[in-house]
Amino acid sequence: MSETTPIVKPIVKIKADPEIVRIVGKKGGEVSLQDINTKLILATLWWEGEPQLETFFQILELTIKRALQEVHPHEKMVIDYSYTANDTLEDASQIMVEIENIEADGEVLEVEGDIIVLSGNDDRGFFKKLTASRRKVKENVHHEI
Questions:
Q1: What's the DSSP call for residue 64?
Q2: Domain locations along the chain
Q3: DSSP assignment, residue 132?
Q4: pLDDT by residue (tens digit) across 55-110?
């Protein structure tokens, strides 16, 4: 009798709270933990006048790739996600990011905890809040890294 070793698939777990997004890459017994301090990053980008959302997405994508690379070496990662803002991007007080698909060298990965919510103070006026549904933003993103 020969024993066959089960093929272990890599898993990406995402856990988000208001201050930290934790990315966990896992394959078999190997684990990689990567944190993104959202408050610090977004505050720094705001202070420096940099594009906050685009830069946050780049950091998120590279952090997922790094966590995965440590447990499952690969050349190319493909990530598909969408984000929804409760108003225009300039006025939004909440942005929800939903990871739809992650592939490493063509292998589809299991993703757990695929929703990240970025929230801030809502200082829009009453009428702006009332009419925000007409300005709501939803975008789909596909990147190869």
A1: H
A2: 11-144
A3: G
A4: 999 999 999 999 999 999 999 999 999 999 998 888 888 899 999 999 999 999 99
User: What is the rounded CA–CA span in Å between residue 29 and residue 20?
Assistant: 24
User: How many Cα neighbours within 13 Å face the side chain of 139?
Assistant: 13
Determine the length of the chain: 145
What count of other Cβ atoms lies within 10 Å of the Cβ of residue 69? 15
- Closest listed residue to residue 104, CA positions, set 56, 72, 138: 72
Q: Are 99 and 82 in contact (CB under 8 A)?
A: no
Q: In which element (H, E) is residue 44 found?
A: helix 38-48
Q: Which residue has the tokens 């905890």?
A: 113
Phi/psi class of residue 66: alpha, beta or left (left: φ > 0; alpha: ψ in -120 to 50)?
alpha
Q: Which residues, other chains included, contact 75 with Cβ-Cβ below 8 Å and sequence gap of 6+? A: 105
Taking the model in full, what pTM does it have?
0.87
